[in-house]
Specification:
With 361 residues, the chain is an alpha/beta fold. 40% of the residues lie in helices and 15% in strands. α1 packs across α2 and α7 runs parallel beside α8.
Length: 361
């Protein structure tokens, strides 16, 4: 026990006597100090004494798509931690193919008396879905916040990354490397984030390469948000002469790298690939993936703040909070192939001093 006290005291930056007073529920300890000791307990993996456990302020549902894509567990972790710090108990409900639908999960959470619900990439992002389901939920007195995807038909706070700006960042990066045939691998056209990414891609291609919407059309390939979907989309784009591919998720980007390799091409020497999300561990792929980082921490915390304001009776603005993403450059992007293949250069451009051009071949 003495060793434990010493560990906790060192972690919290207080004396062992202070730790002892907190653990035994003694008075005379400042609230901030007490919180530091409890946080140290959590960090070190010690269980809080029963008397110190915070009574739950209520349950909050979190409905996400499948957890195969690492971005969803990352968001769930941020949201869960933020809720727990505010005294709420998060309840994770996950949709799986052939499993419970969003409506079924919502009904289950409402029956269990949740104080509110956070939807991540749900039906609110599908332009073909019936949005009256959210009106019905509000009619039951359950506040909610929606992440990724916006609908003017739903009166609730939305939290989204700036998909348009993300694609412009990616196109600007690739164009600056000399790429002129840049492809976009995205999900199904009915989703709001997809439509926004296409819009941003077109804006970027117009600004950097002078291409109009019609010229961009053959450079856009719809597929599924999976590794296999990215592979299929990238194969089609490479066949159309693309030397760089922007993907709508990191999973799709890994599929794009696989597609390039199956064609005997090297990433990034022959084909550059950019992902989207900056999922955990994506920096350790081969090659490390250049990607657009979603501000997961800021988005998750904003969603929780907005929901708690709704629960507290001071509704957050029924508008969209848009967060700026960040380009993270790693090893999957490199200079474009312009002028790198001797067969594509006129003989007048070859070196004439008898020295072999290192870019030939």
């Amino acid at each position: 026990m003495t060793a434990r006290l010493a560990d906790i005291a060192a972690q919290a930056g207080v004396s062992e006597a202070t730790v002892s007073r907190v653990l035994n529920g003694k008075p005379g300890v400042a609230a901030a100090t007490r919180q530091s000791v409890l946080a140290a307990l959590d960090v070190l993996g010690y269980e809080r004494p029963v008397r110190l456990r915070q009574r739950s302020a209520g349950l909050v549902g979190l409905i996400t798509p499948e957890l195969d894509n690492p971005i969803f567990p990352a968001l769930a972790q941020v949201i869960g931690q933020a809720l727990t710090r505010q005294g709420y108990t998060p309840v994770l409900a996950t949709q799986t193919p052939g499993g419970s639908t969003e409506d079924e999960l919502t009904e289950m959470l409402v029956e269990r008396g949740v104080s509110g619900i956070i939807f991540v990439s749900g039906l609110h992002a599908d332009t073909t879905a019936d949005m009256t389901r959210y009106d019905q939920l509000r009619g039951k007195g359950v506040p909610y916040v929606l992440i990724n995807g916006f609908s003017p038909k739903v009166q609730a706070p939305f939290v989204s990354p700036d998909d348009r700006a993300a694609m412009q960042l990616a196109v600007t990066h690739l164009a600056s490397l000399g790429h002129t045939r840049i492809g976009l691998a995205v999900g199904p056209k009915r989703f709001v984030p997809v439509l926004r990414k296409i819009e941003g891609f077109r804006l970027g291609m117009q600004a950097r390469l002078g291409l109009g919407p019609e010229q961009c059309e053959e450079l856009i390939q719809h597929s599924l948000y999976t590794l296999e979907g990215g592979q299929a989309a990238a194969t089609a784009l490479i066949d159309r002469g693309c030397t760089a591919i922007v993907c709508a998720s990191d999973m799709m980007a890994l599929g794009a790298i696989r597609a390039a390799r199956q064609k005997g091409l090297h990433v990034p020497r022959d084909v550059s690939v950019v992902g989207f999300d900056d999922s955990p561990l994506i920096a350790f792929t081969d090659p490390p993936l250049t990607t657009i980082r979603q501000p997961v921490q800021a988005m998750g915390q904003a969603a929780v703040r907005a929901l708690l304001e709704e629960i507290g009776g001071t509704p957050a603005p029924h508008s969209e909070f848009v967060f700026m993403p960040e380009l993270v450059v790693r090893g999957s992007t490199a200079s474009g192939p312009q002028g790198q293949r001797s067969s594509e250069r006129p003989s007048s451009e070859r070196r004439s001093d008898g020295v072999e051009d290192p870019t030939d071949g």
